[in-house]
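Take a sample.
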Amino acid sequence: MATNLTQRVAVGAVFGPLILGVFWVGGLALLVVLCVLVGGGTLEFYRMQQEKGLRPWVIPGVAASLLWCGAVYLYGVNPLTIPLAVLIGLIVLAGSGFGGQVVANIESTLVGVLYVGVLASFAYEVRSASFDGITPNETAAFSILILVSIWVSDIAGYFAGRAFGRRHPFPNISPGKTEAGYIGGLVGSVGLVLLASMQMPFISTWNAVGLGLVVGLGSPFGDLVESMIKRDAGVKDASAVIPGHGGILDRFDSFLFVYPLVYVYLSFIHFS
């Protein structure tokens, strides 16, 4: 356990500042890094589907995920509403069981695009958003705050679970997670955003609480979804590409759900 924790800390110390720097710069630099994560994450998802005996269309699926991110970079999310609706419709159709193995393969391909490519693209959308009265540097700082709050939620949940965890609400999905861990992660994310709002006057106290709750609830939900995918595939980790963390999806599972939820939250509220 100590060795694993040491590896996690070492990897975080190396790549954490790099990811933060990319979010600060934004633009093409963020798109490139996002495409690396999306391409690798989609590939991991398809490999897990192959463990189940399915045969997703790997190359077209990875390409579609990358093209989606490129389209968001060029045009934003709104012009993609119709194709997103079509994509969801196809997934529902595929999930109906019509067509047997062939349609099951199509379903797994489309789910990979939706789960990794579409969800991850919202990180770019939040970073590149424009708000009245907020400078570009403040927008960059806000997107970084969301990223750091995900990390804090994860760290606080980990240590709260180890110190106080007794009850495991989802033993068949994620047996290592405890109620104390979920509460600790929620308190950590809300507390961090509240503290940050003191230096970011464009975030009101109520919005700080709201954003903290969005991160604190969305982060473990993303972890649970990925745990369900791994359980279904019968694998422990998505891959072993990141020492101490597992795969890209193991490290960025919360990331995939938090940024879309933050985007939806921002669509309904104003900062001031």
